[in-house]
Amino acid sequence: MKEHYDVIVVGTGAAGLYCALNLPDRKKILMITKKEADQSDSFLAQGGICMLRGEADYDDYFEDTMRAGHYENNKKAVDLMIRSSNSIIRDLLMRNVDFERSEEGDLLFTREGAHSQPRILFHKDITGKEITSRLLEQAQKRENIEICEYMTMVDLISKDNTVCGIIAMDRNDQAFPVYSQYVVLACGGIGGLFKNSTNFSHIAGDGVGIAMKHHVEMENLDYIQIHPTTLYSKKPGRRFLVSESVRGEGALLYDKNGQRFTNELQPRDLLSQKIFAQMEKDGTEFVWEDMRPLGEKTILEHFPHIYEQCVEEGFDPRKEPIPVVPAQHYFMGGIKVNLGSKTSMKGLYACGETSCNGVHGRNRLASNSLLESLVFARRAADDILFGKKPELCRAGAIDRKCYEDRESLMAGYRKNVLNEIERMKNSHE
């Protein structure tokens, strides 16, 4: 690791990788990640990635996204995402991303909850892994991109509301400054703040907390999505997500008596409320999801990873319902950005789950996350290349003593994020 780079990207998920890959070879780029490069939530995304299926689909896709977001979405951001989807998919195909196809070689589409028609491309039930691993492979081959694992951002360096770089900390708790005129925060969501979450526990909103310290504008931090169907388990750790696609393909939800109690294709927040209410009524810790209507062939071919996880927990979804429970899943709020993914600090960008560009509104439509991440990651790269350059920031001396206690430092950031979530929640009530 050097002391100066053209661009620093914090995070190695889909957004961070795609931003770096959309920058030219002449740019020296540093990417850092707290764990191994493939331990981002992008690798966990199961369902798929949305795509506009011709002009006839535009109004329906737009309305589906707005309705799921309770019409609190930024319409310009939604339009930009939808209109950009075909070029993103073409680019992914050129990068050898393998989406499911028919016997004739045509792309196959599936449908998920709150979608009016099938418009979701997928790779088995590990679409996020398929896309993000391809991007990671390509980033690792680029000589201008340096990826440092087990490296944590513990602070931003800024002066006069202009970014100068970051304070990075290695696995030995040694902190040191790394300077750049551009910093891209692509450090994921806030799942690590919750007891039950589908996210990796180390992804806990640090980037949001650090940006808050530097008075970067935030938006809707209390807009937190609960995924209605995660596999119930008494084991500690991350909850395994049972994809929206399973219900989109026909799976049903039952109460403790084996009776259906709601529409399975409602938006996630509404369905989660119905499940919580049924659990309270029944006095249970879960409800049942029945995958048998899909048929054994679809279960094994379309959802092999989900099938394997269920069997590992002692349930065979080909023969019996599986227990599911809602859990924290996605962060719609975050660091406020414009359509170019620029934050309120000059030279500082944010994309992916850590940002809030308004696409999702109050609640995300299924399988819009990967698309939104890629669209606005590319917008960040474009703005870095073609936008107005910030003035060169020259920060003063760094007091490294501030960063001697990693745990208390990060705990402080997370506490501030939780406090701000609660404050914004109260302001919206």
Give the SSE order as H and E letters.
EHEEHHEHEEEEHEEHEHEHHEEEEHH
Broad structural category:
alpha/beta
Strand content: 15-25%
* Multimerization state: single chain
Helix content: 25-40%
Report the C-alpha radius of gyration, rounded.
Answer: 21 Å
Low-pLDDT runs of 5+ residues are none
Give the number of helices.
11
N- to C-terminal separation? 47 Å
Mean pLDDT level: 95
The counted number of beta strands is 16
**Overall geometric form:** globular
Care to describe what's here?
Helix 1 links the parallel strand 1 and strand 2. Helix 2 packs across helix 3, helix 3 crosses helix 10 and helix 5 crosses helix 11. Helices cover 32% and strands 19% of the residues. The chain is globular. The chain is of the alpha/beta class and 429 residues long. The model has no long low-confidence stretch (mean pLDDT 95). The strands form 4 sheets. Strands 1, 2, 5, 6, 7, 8 and 15 form a 7-stranded mixed beta sheet that branches. Strands 10-13-12-11 form a 4-stranded antiparallel beta sheet, with helices on one face. The protein has a 3-stranded mixed beta sheet with strand order 9-14-16, covered by helices on one side. The relative contact order is 0.20. The chain has 11 helices and 16 strands.
